[in-house]
């Protein structure tokens, strides 16, 4: 999710010794001492907030090789080859896909980038999008409104530009980061795409606007809301148009994301604007699937919040209030944290909610889906977003916190009874864990599962797979504040999906490699367990009478375990009337 990683930075220590005799010497301004490989860096500075961006990049990616020029719709982009454990992959860093959303374009839909005559340098990091620094802070020091860029990693045998390639076009994976629509960046060490690219796919990661820059709703065409989703959409269209030039198959695109990134994936599944742009989708902990009778944030409330923000910046609420906000310094706007950042229904991008979309068959019904959740989704999320939950000890404490949450149609006493029915009166830790379970169910687990299940029921000819991740995180989790007591927290899978343990040569590298295989197998074939002896049944078996939902457990100790009807009592039971 939003946490990314000093642990990933530590991985650079292990990579510092990588050398490739075929790599070119690094330039002097990059810190080269004249030899190949990455320059020597004092370990005490790894992860330091004062390291220049370029030097930080060098530590992260190790040795560079030949430069690569590819002619695209926006001009010639220049990337380079990089090595990972004697395997060469192609890397294009920070390809612009939109006009900078500044000035009059702030709060507006992104515009396609006009072609550029000069060669575009895509060998180093670009800007991350403006975001509040309360969480990621100095991990994304180089922020700007001019941030709409994407990264591409491709296998070395993938076609580039007009090259003659021996390999056919490869499946494409399109990553959307999480961060509660408040933060995130494709330049975080966690999202290093080299390992995924060694599995014979082309990876695209995309920056999109967050916070008020990405989700302010102005009630008019020039400020339609859902801007971060429109950024993703334009990047997806650019990918469809250009990815064949990098060896990727535009007809084999899998969109995938985690947390808010998974919300975004479901947004594209529902949006008429995204139809036909992708073939498969992977949802990791999140779906825009909430109360059946209302969205999370109505247009009325979103507009009121935007105008309240305008008042804070002394912009009157007359017809010029948006123009006034567009003139405010970006750094000042970035410090405003009271704006809700949620997708908005009844808009061009999201005309209707998911429940209605499935009932009317108004969604991308011709795709396959792989989805899943962590075993203890609510623990670290409750700790992060509702810190008062850390103080819950009694039944009354539980009820008091429940009453602060917007759950229309759900009686507080029924929620309390359901989640505390098996908790002893004096079990203070048990009461707190019960709140974690409740919070995870209502925010992540049930929306993700019920979205996938609704899709499976309404598209019986498509493959839908679901997993429960039961293996604790060793890297992302501790940085997010996930303690052993909290269990298998939100975002536990990210380090394995991107192969961080492989980069670090940790004891989990074999498991991580198997996870990368599952994800890339699904992108290539639609079958996550292709080429393995293990089975992964569909969530809902088409044609079966009273089918029992099947869940794959992902854990290195139980590679062949399948749960039956795992969420019968919660999502299919207690919460059923709330969502459906």
Automatic annotation (TrEMBL):
Catalysis: reaction(s): acetylcholine + H2O = choline + acetate + H(+)
Protein's UniProt keywords contain Glycoprotein: yes
Annotated active site: 259, 377, 490
Residue ranges annotated for the Carboxylesterase type B domain, each copy included: 70-542
Domain of life assignment: Eukaryota
Keywords, in A-Z order: Disulfide bond, Glycoprotein, Hydrolase, Serine esterase
Enzyme superclass (EC): hydrolase
GO MF term set: acetylcholinesterase activity
Disulfide bond listed as a keyword: yes
UniProt xrefs under PROSITE patterns: CARBOXYLESTERASE_B_1
Gene Ontology annotations of biological process type: acetylcholine catabolic process; choline metabolic process
Signal peptide (UniProt feature, chain positions): none
Enzyme Commission (EC) number: 3.1.1.-
Gene Ontology cellular component terms for the protein in this record: extracellular space; plasma membrane
TM spans (from-to): none
Family according to the record: Belongs to the type-B carboxylesterase/lipase family.
PANTHER family with a match to the protein in the record: ACETYLCHOLINESTERASE, CARBOXYLIC ESTER HYDROLASE
Entry protein name: Carboxylic ester hydrolase
Organism of this sequence: Medioppia subpectinata
């Amino acid at each position: 999710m939003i946490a990314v990683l000093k642990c990933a930075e530590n991985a650079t220590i292990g990579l510092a010794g990588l050398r490739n005799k075929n790599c070119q010497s690094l330039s002097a301004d990059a810190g080269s001492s004249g030899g190949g490989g990455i320059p020597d860096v004092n370990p005490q500075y790894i992860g330091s907030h004062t390291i220049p961006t370029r030097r930080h990049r060098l530590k992260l990616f190790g040795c560079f090789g030949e430069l690569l020029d590819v002619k695209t719709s926006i001009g010639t982009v220049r990337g380079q080859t990089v090595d990972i454990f004697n395997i060469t992959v192609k890397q294009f860093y920070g390809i612009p896909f939109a006009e900078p959303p500044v000035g009059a374009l702030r709060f507006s839909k992104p515009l396609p980038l006009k072609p550029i005559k000069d060669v575009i340098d895509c060998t180093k990091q670009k800007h991350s999008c403006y975001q509040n620094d309360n969480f990621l802070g100095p991990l994304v020091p180089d922020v700007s409104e001019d941030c709409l860029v994407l990264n591409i990693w491709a296998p070395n045998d993938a076609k580039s530009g007009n090259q003659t390639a021996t390999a056919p076009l490869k499946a494409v994976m399109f990553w959307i980061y999480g961060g509660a629509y408040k933060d995130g960046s494709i330049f975080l060490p966690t999202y290093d795409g080299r390992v995924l690219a060694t599995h014979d796919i082309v990876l695209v990661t995309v920056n999109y606007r967050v916070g008020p820059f990405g989700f302010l709703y102005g009630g008019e065409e020039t400020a339609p809301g859902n801007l971060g989703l429109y950024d993703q959409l334009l990047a997806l269209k650019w990918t469809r148009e250009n990815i064949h030039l990098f060896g990727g198959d535009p007809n084999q695109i899998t969109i995938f994301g985690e947390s808010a990134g998974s919300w975004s994936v479901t947004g594209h599944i529902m949006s008429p604007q995204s139809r036909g742009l992708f073939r498969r989708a992977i949802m990791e902990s999140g779906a825009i699937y909430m109360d059946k009778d209302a969205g999370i944030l109505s247009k009325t409330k979103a507009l009121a919040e935007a105008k309240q923000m305008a008042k804070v910046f002394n912009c009157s609420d007359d017809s010029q209030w948006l123009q006034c906000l567009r003139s405010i310094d970006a750094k000042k706007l970035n410090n405003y944290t009271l704006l809700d950042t949620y997708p908005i229904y009844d808009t061009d991008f999201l005309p209707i909610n998911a429940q209605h979309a499935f009932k009317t068959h108004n969604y991308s019904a011709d795709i396959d889906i792989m989805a899943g959740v962590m075993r203890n989704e609510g623990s670290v999320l409750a700790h992060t977003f509702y810190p008062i939950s850390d103080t819950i000890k009694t039944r009354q404490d539980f009820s008091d916190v429940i009453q602060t949450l917007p759950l229309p149609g759900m009686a507080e006493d029924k929620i309390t009874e359901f989640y505390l029915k098996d908790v002893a009166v004096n079990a203070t830790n048990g009461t707190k864990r019960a709140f974690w379970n409740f919070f995870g169910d209502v925010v992540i687990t049930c929306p993700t599962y019920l979205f996938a299940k609704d899709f499976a029921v309404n598209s019986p000819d498509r493959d839908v797979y679901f997993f429960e991740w039961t293996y604790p995180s060793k890297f992302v989790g501790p940085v997010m504040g996930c303690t052993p007591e909290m269990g298998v927290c939100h975002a536990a899978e990210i380090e394995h999906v991107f192969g961080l343990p492989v980069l670090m040569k940790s004891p989990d590298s074999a498991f991580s490699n198997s996870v990368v295989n599952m994800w890339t197998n699904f992108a290539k074939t639609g079958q996550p367990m292709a080429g393995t002896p293990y089975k992964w049944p569909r969530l809902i078996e088409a044609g079966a009478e009273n089918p029992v939902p099947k869940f794959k457990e992902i854990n290195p100790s139980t590679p062949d375990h399948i749960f039956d009807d795992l969420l019968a009592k919660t999502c299919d039971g207690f919460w059923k009337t709330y969502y459906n």
